[in-house]
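writing this on my phone so excuse typos. first protein, seq and then structure
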Amino acid sequence: MTERAQIGVFGGSGFYALMENATERWIETPYGLPSDKVALGEIGGRRVAFMPRHVRDHRYPPHAINYRANLYAMKQLGVEWILGPTACGSLKAAIAPGSMLVADQLVDRTWGRRDTYFDGPLATHVSFADPYCPTLRPIAVASLRSLGIETHDGGTVVVIQGPRFSTRSESKWYQSQGWEVINMTQYPEAYLARELEMCYANISLVTDYDVGLEGMAPVSQMEVFEVFKRNNERLKGAITEIVSRIPLGADCACRHALEGMR
């Protein structure tokens, strides 16, 4: 494979393009085809691979995404650093729509998703105590703040199965646990990156307040998309800034996640 990339970016709801003059190609994997063609190009002289996880026409709902193929395609391209922007709902009044949160924890409430590359014959148990890259996460926070974006450093994203939104009672329960935001795609995407020993960070773009907050009306899919689209240029600028700051040659604990297991 002649085309390579150092950094990978997944596009979330309403985020379907990143670079101009990019080369698009399908990447075959042992786990089938990924969600969409990978766009390969440069940002600030650095090779970047971009893939919309839902496809550009938003064909795949969160539970139907082939996460294993998506992450493996990035790995085959040589990607070592991955940014996973997502739309999310806020579970706290202080985390307002339009702000961004760089998560440091997640809670998995999904079911039935193919969430490991290690299906046997030997059991492999990978630590996921700290789901997000300790090198990449602070870079994302500093980059967002340098652009004047209201940024929350740390927080737990609870990942629900989807495609439906939460009931009010479910949302109130998530809030009662002290969790900050709610999303449908961070698991198993973040975990599969760890199994492949890639550095992964999330940028949660807050599109709405979740329904469990007092007085909040139910959100619609179109409202989520509209907020994300309005913030696309801001998000692209943030990704450009983060890409420029990534220490490409640096070592990181994520690169050693499987040590002693193979």
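second protein below, same order as before
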Amino acid sequence: MTNPENGAHRRSRFWGETTAFLALFLDNVGVLVFMSAILMFTFNYPAEIILKRMIPGTAIGVFFGDLVYTWLAVRLRRKTGRTDVTAMPLGLDTPSSIGLVYAVLGPAYIATKNAELTWQIGMATLFMIGLAKVAMSFFGAWVQRIVPTAGILGSLAGIGLLLLGFLPLLEIFNEVVVGMVALGLIFAALLGRMELPGRIPGILLAVVLGSALHFALGYGGYIPEFKAPSFEMSLCIPVFSLSFLKSLPQSIQYLPIAIPFAILTIIGGINNTESARLAGDDYRTRDILLTEAVTSLVASFFGGVAQTTPYIGHPAYKKMGATHWYTLLTGLLIGIGSVVGLLSLIVGLIPRAVLAPIFIFIGLEIIRQAYREAPDAHSPAVSMSFLPVVANLVIIILGQFLGALEVNPNALPARLQTMFQTLTVLSNGFILTGLLWGSVVAFLIDRKPRPAALCAFLCAVFSLFGFIHSILPTGEIYLPWEAGSNQPYMIALAYVILSAIFLSLKAEDGV
């Protein structure tokens, strides 16, 4: 005779595994949809390369990463004899994926007008991120100890507020009925943790209902930019290639973006592994970090342009009742789906307004984490890290308007030219700038003038060569005597003076 309690337990485990799979799968699909939409609609990048090369290549990292994390969970299950071991969730890192579109791929395409070269620059940047992550996986904890949390998480929180929060809000109001329905369902499920009728997962209902509304309103003529979807599917087999290495010289300028993104995911991986340990699943930190590093590196050789990372929320997946099946299914569906064209089809079908609330939710969570993890006294340092991202957001929006009007910034009135150049200087290298500015403020709050002076001096060195505050519209690095202006020297001098001021200070504790 069947035990009713066992049947209920199996049903509960099935729904938990299904919910976890949907959450992880749709998170990854959401990143791909937004990456594709930004490139196509903001920068007019060719859809063909995105759908048939970038997406399959990027999916390779998720495929291998989730398979490895599945194997690690099975190994831990066998070692401990427990049946409730939950695999670490892995997927595309949202902040850096969107950040790379706005800070690398988009600007590279505008500067070169060459879609193939832009794609290769994206691969080369991911390659540099992968190398940095492999190196830092061995001493990530050391970086975490010496760099203030406010600097590390503050620059990421700036992206959360502006690139993941504000820009998706525009997508919601572009299709306000669709966007608000999705926002209500996703926020109720993810922020309010409320149970929807029939225990339907909130994200799934938002996608289905939001997409249905989008197509109903679109075919009814109520959405101006509506395009009928294409249901074409074709094989998109990622091909191993080394040709992108030729674009490394053009990609070096993006190193100041690549390294901070690598640092952020490595430190995030350390924190997420510790979170999993506290929830009962004790994984080796180095196994988790090397997996995300190597899979990011591997993806670059197959056309990938976005890094993988362990996701925040292992304890939440565990509470759902998920084991290793949800990562296995996600990896297989992402990998196989990208090859047969299913992933590109899904990316083309799900409206941006439906997924925008997910990114806003992620952005809000990143901001909350930055203020929570940093000491209370460091909140001004976290906020200071936001400011370079503001400049980047303004440049993104202004660039679209000026490009559409075919206006060269040099044709603006003198005062506006100066303002545009200042915004450009503040925007270039904004991730590294935010990290260093936040660190300076955090050290000053802690009455540590010498580390603050060191950070200011690093700003001087980096700005001299354009790693931060590049004076060129493309954000390129340069030798200062070849920049064609004395501005790099003036910026570096300002930071040197600031460093000297800090060195002249003496804290009460003698630091």
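Residues 4-42 form the longest helix (39 residues). thats all i got for now
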